């Protein structure tokens, strides 16, 4: 049935008809009745196609015959009416432009006034595809050793190929020759090249009579073909109205049978046994559905629902909605979560758009993104039913991601005080004033503070001042480190909840604790110094403090001291960081080896694969269901790799968060360049055309470079920070998705 439906679909597409998307009122049809209907329709279509092909073939033959009659007659008339010197014979070399005239008896006989059949000169006329003419002519010349005359002329109209239904160009030919042997050779060559030969009488009156008869038959055939095509299209249109419903019905039935094939017979061969996964929250619904199925089918044997213990790890299933689904997809693109491990998508929902906004912060650009997101959300019902392109489908699927990214971009833009790179006095007057009363050179000489700090965000007076770049760079770089350290700490804390949930105390004592100590002894301390420096207004050089914390921890800090007791605190933190490395590396492998030895001490026999033993967990992991041979060297190497990766990754990951500063700076500078060098420059001319051109260039640069390319760049960098810097602290991502049987998830590919 599926094959027949595909056949109908191909026929509808070839006929140029569209499958109807409207709902056709029709009674529900059983599968058995549908099978009969499809067989009838298929038989009818095959018969119509066969008749149509025969008619088309007859039409093509008559059309070719008509063309051959018209073209060949001119050759025959010219061959009797012109002298020998005007005749042209076939060129010996097809690439030569010289006419090769041979004074053979063939042409002498052609000149004689008696009929060609009495003189021994005969001819064959026909039609051949245009691209085969050169090879065909060469082959005839060689087969007859030049004893022939080949005339050709373009057909003048294209003829449909009955096999491919394509219009192809053809050429009419007439071959003059002498002798029965040459005739046999020429006919065989015509057959080999697919040339169609047609008899043309030499008598002009007969030619005219045959031409009129052929034309009359062509007119009749054309009318018959048109009627047949209309009848066939009418039949296909009636099928097209029901095709979608029929295909859905067959697709569902196939999916049901495919699922039933996964079930097994029980020992009595009287009922089927199926094993599958079911979410715990849907257990009651499953039982109710099975009871309904038993009642609806009038089954004498009830369906037994039994919960069993499984050896393999269950699939992972998270309940999502239209808002949270794109964030879950972002996480799943990295890897599907292990069964029951912490789901990063919960935190990604807020942190991902916020990290994007730190790099994209401009409330003018944020408003543009917000408008785009609101348009997609407002047309949600309409767009969800349409077939979109790959780019639009991606934008529509992430409409709520764009919404949050735009809102956070507006928030960060207000903090950065940037509206298309222009600062505004939104929250009051600036805290700075001009050094001079004239204020003419205020941006070059400098500003002085005369009131309380600007209440929210960056003071607008920093824009254009001498120290603008150094101030903003310092602020954004330190801010990036603070957010980065907080983000990585969140990842390590989630590893603690994973270990506690799975009951792995080893992971808590020998991974979580030393990792927290190492990260915060170095970069947590750096974050503390940044906050203290901001709060106290100190001029201490944090680069110097961090470098000499490693090179000479006992030396005096001098003017770089931020608080009392800083030097001994640095020594303690440095020692803790040094101790944390072997703490991560050595204890866990040796403890695992000791526990394994104690557990299997004195056992010289294999373990029976009973359900009780299968469910027993290894001491190092509550997730381990299979008993594998303990390999100490493998465990030690794995732990060593994990420890080295964390130690080196702490440095590289912290540095990686500086991309928040770099991209924010790049976005701000690009906005400034387009504003000052395009818009303001064009506005400086007192010419409407130049101003319009400048405004157009500024609008296109903002839309395509700042809103599209820069947003894509910030999106990818935020994605990397989540996948690499955050998720590698706790996320295994080696699970597999729960894919329940669902009619809604069936696609056309499932045919």
Automatic annotation (TrEMBL):
Task: Outline what the protein does.
Answer: Essential component of the vacuolar proton pump (V-ATPase), a multimeric enzyme that catalyzes the translocation of protons across the membranes. Required for assembly and activity of the V-ATPase.
Annotated coiled-coil positions are 31-58
Q: Which GO terms describe its biological process?
A: vacuolar acidification
Q: Which family does it belong to?
A: Belongs to the V-ATPase 116 kDa subunit family.
Q: What keywords are assigned to this protein? A: Coiled coil, Hydrogen ion transport, Ion transport, Membrane, Transmembrane, Transmembrane helix, Transport
Which Gene Ontology molecular function entries are recorded, alphabetically? ATPase binding; proton-transporting ATPase activity, rotational mechanism
Q: Where in the cell is it found?
A: Membrane
The molecule here is called V-type proton ATPase subunit a
- Topological type in the membrane: Multi-pass membrane protein
Major location (coarse): membrane
Q: List, alphabetically, the InterPro entries matched.
A: V-ATPase_116kDa_su (IPR002490), V-type_ATPase_116kDa_su_euka (IPR026028)
GO cellular component terms attached to this protein's record: vacuolar proton-transporting V-type ATPase, V0 domain
**TM annotation in the entry:** 350-377, 398-416, 479-497, 517-534, 569-586, 688-709
Domain of life of the organism encoding this protein: Eukaryota
Please give the organism: Cicer arietinum (Chickpea)
